[in-house]
Write a structure and sequence with these properties.
- This protein is about 30% helix and about 20% strand.
- It has about 325 residues and is of the alpha+beta class.
- Strands 1-4-7-6 form a 4-stranded mixed beta sheet. A two-stranded antiparallel sheet has the order 2-3. Strands 5-8 form a two-stranded antiparallel sheet.
- β6 and β7 form a beta hairpin.
- The relative contact order is 0.10.
Length: about 325
């Protein structure tokens, strides 16, 4: 059963985002707090489950407040069953039902939503889509386009020549733990995250799994990161050449990001400045700014555009 293999622990302190959301089953404050309207809860569950399924999958937990306090629910069994069954009764095609788990002596409701291969509709109420930490209304054609582009056109979705034995087990373990899926096997995790496909009794990896977990790095010429530093504010060539080239960072993406982050951090000046009566370190550029730029550059590059080095005599 899914609930016996689900590790809820990482989600208890996780921020809401593309793959996770939490909702309270109460409204009001203090002594006036009361259970939310059951129909509104079912409507919200249907919307969020369809939105996750139409995107990349995700987890919805009911019974946790915005401040992460576990409050559970006070629902009678029939109302609880109706909420748990919402994905199979309110969605087309039907999605996996929810299950309950005990956390800190209270019962919470969990929906572990896989990404759907086809658009999922809330019957009579359209096609929601998960975008970041928001759920927005979309259309069947738009979701079909997004899924087609992601599954059929991207280099990352194509079949990899590597096998499970070529992947780094430690990285996979970290990924499973971070996603709250530590009870799954590596194979089950890759299938759930659409990083692999089942072919008969075997599993075929996608290139995305290779990029993320290949033990000795992915087989792609542009999987690494090239770093150079410009001395000054403009880049010059010839006699005024002012570019300081750094060794290229290669490997799987977690290793590349860690290495390049360390290198960039070491290049930034961090002078001590007098603030009030004390000296404090003042960084040249805020870490969050350049790190976000780095991650965006890696996340949004197109692996279909292969740039091979050219030798000019």
């Amino acid at each position: 059963m899914a609930e016996l293999r689900f590790d809820i622990t990482p989600f208890l302190d996780q921020d809401e985002g593309q793959h996770f959301d939490r909702k309270s089953l109460y409204e009001g404050i203090g002594e006036a707090k009361r259970s939310r309207n059951r129909r509104a809860v079912r409507d919200q569950v249907a919307e969020y489950i369809a939105a996750f399924a139409n995107a990349e999958g995700g987890v919805l937990i009911l019974g946790i407040e915005d401040d992460r306090t576990i409050t559970g629910h006070r629902l009678p069994q029939d109302a609880l069953s109706n909420i748990l069954n919402t994905p199979s009764t309110r969605l087309q095609p039907a999605q996996p039902d929810g299950f309950v788990m005990q956390v800190e002596g209270r019962e919470v409701i969990v929906f572990d939503v896989p990404a759907s291969d086809v658009p999922v509709q809330v019957i009579g109420d359209g096609f929601p889509l998960r975008m970041g930490d928001q759920t927005v209304q979309s259309s069947e054609s738009q979701i079909n386009t997004l899924k087609f582009e992601g599954m059929a056109e991207s280099w990352e979705s194509r079949r990899s020549s590597m096998t499970l034995a070529d992947l780094d087990e430690r990285l996979l373990e970290r990924a499973r733990q971070g996603a709250g899926l530590s009870a799954l096997s590596d194979e089950e995790y890759l299938l759930k995250r659409k990083l692999a496909d089942r072919r008969g009794r075997g599993v075929v990896l996608r290139n995305a799994a290779e990029l993320l977990f290949a033990r000795y790095g992915p087989d792609h010429p542009n999987a690494g990161v090239r770093l150079f530093r410009v001395i000054g504010t403009e880049r010059h060539t010839g006699p005024e050449h002012n570019v300081e080239e750094r060794p290229r960072c290669e490997g799987n993406l977690p290793a590349v990001i860690l290495e390049i982050r360390t290198v960039i951090s070491s290049l930034l000046r961090r002078p001590m400045r007098l603030v009030g009566s004390r000296f404090q370190e003042s960084v040249e550029y805020p870490d969050f700014a350049w790190l976000e730029a780095l991650l965006n550059a890696i996340a949004h590059r197109d692996y279909r555009c292969v740039l091979y080095p050219v030798s000019i005599p």
